[in-house]
Amino acid sequence: MQEIFNRRSIRKFTDQPVEPEKIDKLLRAAMQAPSAVNQQPWEFIVVQDKERLEKLSQTSPYAKLIAGSPLTFVLVANKHDIKVPGALGWEEDMGAAAQNILLEAVHLGLGGVWLGVATTEIVPKNITAFFDLPDYILPFAMISIGYPDGQENKFVDRYKEEKVHYEKW
Ligand SMILES: Cc1cc2nc3c(=O)[nH]c(=O)nc-3n(C[C@H](O)[C@H](O)[C@H](O)COP(=O)(O)O)c2cc1C
């Protein structure tokens, strides 16, 4: 699947808006992801308003590029959907959904970047405050998407033979 090999983090976008049909496809791709006990804990906040994007870009020190994006998804998990005892594993479900969005974006001629949220303490708090989220909604990641401006999805070889172990580690 060529999209896997060509995908790169794209951080600069043209002003061209992402068509609603493509947004729909990206969301459908996300929701096709596998999840533990098929719990599908994901929900998606779609942000396209320029002013909102500018403010959203201030929720993470590493996500300033959101301000220059035409579209950013905020991926959140709904605790009420998490069926695995101890509420473990939801991050894995969310990661699969995030990767599906990024790969579908390449397929649609778009570019995107995964912006970490759950990897820090302050960013989930900032996002919860920004969207006034209830306590059962867990911020996981943001993904900015758009038409690449001066960057492209192109293959970089990352294969490392020493990372592969057959039968035993
Ligand atoms: C969990 C996670 C968090 C990330 N957070 C950020 C981020 O906050 N800002 C950013 O510009 N890129 C972020 N990235 C993108 C990585 O920097 C990027 O995937 C990595 O450098 C490899 O480059 P590539 O995506 O072009 O292959 C994140 C990626 C992952 C998987």
Uncertain runs are none
Distance between the termini: 28 Å
The helix-strand sequence is HHEHEHEHE
| Overall 3D form | globular
Order of strands, main sheet, comes to 1-2-4-3
Could you give the count of β-strands? 4
**What does the average pLDDT come to?**
96
Largest sheet: 4 strands, antiparallel
Decide which structural class fits the backbone: alpha+beta
Radius of gyration: 17 Å
Architecture blueprint of SSEs:
Blueprint: H1 2-6, H2 20-31, E1 42-47, H3 50-56, E2 71-78, H4 90-107, E3 111-116, H5 122-131, E4 137-146
Helix pairs in contact: 2-4
What would you note in describing this structure?
The chain has a single domain, classed as NADH Oxidase, CATH 3.40.109.10. The chain is 31% helix and 18% strand. It contains five helices and four strands; from the N terminus they run H-H-E-H-E-H-E-H-E. A four-stranded antiparallel sheet has the order 1-2-4-3, with helices on both faces. 32% of the residues are buried. With 169 residues, the chain is of the alpha+beta class. The chain has helices spanning 2-6, 20-31, 50-56, 90-107, 122-131, and strands at residues 42-47, 71-78, 111-116, 137-146. Helix 2 (20-31) packs antiparallel against helix 4 (90-107). The longest helix is centred in the middle third of the chain and has 18 residues, at 90-107. The chain binds flavin mononucleotide. Residues 8-9, 11, 62-63, 113-116, 119 line the site of flavin mononucleotide.
